[in-house]
Specification:
This protein is mostly helical. Helix content is 42%, strand content 6%. 29% of the residues are buried. This is BTB domain-containing protein.
């Protein structure tokens, strides 16, 4: 998919530079591999993220996580292959547990292999880095000409995390996305916005973010974009249209329009040009 970028703009968003703290009700990771599996399998069928950063794990636990079977993962249409420690993957999310199914669906992992052909390999690279190191790169340290590309990769990372259930990394991904847009002076165009509404839940914070970006572009008098620029997005998702309109209402402070039932009626007449009735009706004086 090509990048249909928004125009170069002034500061759009203000992103804090320090990590954002978050609440995670997931219990502290267990101490042994057997407890990792038994605890995950006894919990409700909802992917969870461990509270402890992998970089803060003891040497003993980290060594246990890097033991055991390897999982082959095939990513993207170009079929890039990874062989990763399955114990470590399951430590982060049940998605990589061979026994885990959702709503009775067939097992995703078969014979030690998982296919994620509709995911982006560059986003998966960031996932691997985070799983083994507990962090991803900060866009602020990158040259300006690559900030947008990294931001867009973080958008795809967010979608990957939405799928596999990694809330903590989702939050880091959206932070890097916002910061990258801000520092590059660019915002996503309609084509980049479509996947957000195709692959996220209605309550997703990323939906709220991009609908506000679109609303700001539409309302910016210096922007060439108007509502028709997002026609395909509106057609794809009525929710996108609703979110953008609500964002405009909030962003304009709820300003009330002039009453359309008052004032110049020619605005609502059909004319060959303009908004003025050129012909006036003359009444004969019968007095």
């Amino acid at each position: 998919m090509g990048h249909s970028l928004g125009r170069v703009d002034g500061p759009v968003l203000k992103t804090p530079t320090k990590p954002i703290s978050h609440f995670d009700a997931t219990p502290t990771p267990p101490n042994t591999i057997e407890r990792i599996y038994s605890n995950y399998r006894s919990e409700p069928e909802m992917p969870q993220t461990p509270q402890q950063n992998i970089g803060d794990s003891s040497a003993k636990i980290f060594a246990e996580l890097l033991s055991g079977p390897m999982l082959e993962i095939v990513v993207g249409s170009e079929e890039r292959h990874w062989h990763l420690h399955q114990n470590l993957l399951v430590h982060h999310t049940r998605f990589f547990d061979e026994s885990y199914t959702v709503n009775g669906e067939r097992k995703r992992i078969q014979e030690g292999k998982l296919e994620l052909r509709d995911e982006d390999p560059t986003a998966f690279e960031l996932l691997v880095k985070w799983m083994y190191q507990g962090k991803i790169d900060d866009v602020s340290w990158m040259p300006k000409d690559v900030k947008w590309d990294y931001a867009f990769t973080c958008q795809k990372l967010y979608l990957l995390c939405e799928r596999i259930g990694l809330q903590e990394l989702q939050n880091q991904a959206i932070d890097q996305f916002r910061r990258g847009c801000h520092e590059a002076g660019l915002v996503p165009g309609p084509e980049e916005m479509k996947p957000i509404y195709e692959r996220t839940r209605p309550s997703s914070p990323f939906r709220r973010l991009i609908s506000r970006i679109a609303a700001r572009q539409i309302m910016d008098p210096a922007s060439e974009k108007d509502a028709s620029s997002y026609k395909d997005c509106f057609a794809l998702s009525p929710d996108f249209a609703v979110d953008v309109i609500n964002a405009i209402k909030v962003g304009t402070g709820g300003s009330l329009f002039d009453d359309p039932t008052e004032g110049n009626s020619c605005r609502y007449h059909e004319h060959e040009d303009g908004e003025t009735c050129h012909k006036t009706v003359k009444f004969k004086d019968i007095s």
